[in-house]
Amino acid sequence: MWGQMTVPVNLILGFLAVLARVSGAFLFVPLPGMKQAPAIARIVLSLSVATVVWVARPGTLATHEFAIGEPVALILSEAALGISIGVAVALLGECLSLAAQMIGLQAGFSYASTIDPTSDADSGVLLVFSQLVSWWLLFATGFEAYVIRAFARSFELYPPGGFAVQGAAVEAVLRLGSVVLAAAFRLALPILAMLVLVDVTFALLARVNAHLQLLSLAFPVKLLASIALLAMLAGAFPKVYGDAAAQAASTISRIAGAGREGR
Questions:
Q1: Strand 122-124 relative to strand 113-115: parallel, antiparallel, unpaired?
Q2: Of all helices (H) and strands (E), which one includes residue 123?
Q3: 65 burial level (CB within 10 Å; 0-12, 13-18, 19+)
Q4: Residue 113 parent element (H or E)
Q5: How far apart are the C-alpha atoms of 168 and 85, rounded to whole Å?
């Protein structure tokens, strides 16, 4: 049966491979409002992008009789490439969010909640603000254009059926996770250290005079001090985010093969 329908089957498998790669990327890229969008809208988006890519770069898989399970392995391999790129972009978006989580919990911002526009759930004010800033910085650095170019370049270097999952790609994504974690700590540690000093100061004052009602003052002092220090460190956020974005770009290049010509 496979031999009698070689061309149509290869055409279909080629399109499914492109669709798997595109859908894998959209699965993890944190597009605003994507989680609230109807499932049919996300399916249509993936199909539309896959169709555009397939029309722009038509082709078929190698004509041969596929062994049992080979088409499934091909689709999974293509999905792994898209998922790897999507995870790299998602990890970069978590840089500021992770720092905001650490700061908000210690400073008391977690008590003030608002609606998260990406999930329609109650989230901390500082967390939602950090997510918005993360998207602003992503577009300000032009990272989204690089991701699109690298994704398009992956179809030149790895046509449908030409990508194989390698340990180097997995290692690159894991290393990016450690870079994002380190960047989040670089942003949060100065404020966390200041909050520790505030707690130690109030503890010593309470030890000197037990009659002082310092507990009611600790909360507003920590909030005001955190806001003041965040304002002072605002200029460092783009630099730290830019370093993480450069590492994410290097990771995507390593996965998608966009940097092969420069090596």
A1: antiparallel
A2: strand 122-124
A3: exposed
A4: strand 113-115
A5: 14
Q: Which residues of the chain have pLDDT under 70?
A: 1-10, 30-38, 57-69, 112-123, 161-162, 164-165, 210, 212, 215, 256-263
Interval 248-258: pLDDT, tens: 888 888 776 64
Token readout for 231 is: 């304002």
Angle between helices 125-140 and 70-107 (to 10 degrees): 120
SS3 120: coil
Distance CA 117, CA 74 (A): 36
Identify the DSSP state of 235.
Answer: G
Q: Give the burial class of 104: count Cβ atoms within 10 A of its Cβ; 0-12 exposed, 13-18 middle, 19 or more buried.
A: buried
Q: Which run of H or E residues covers position 194?
A: helix 167-208
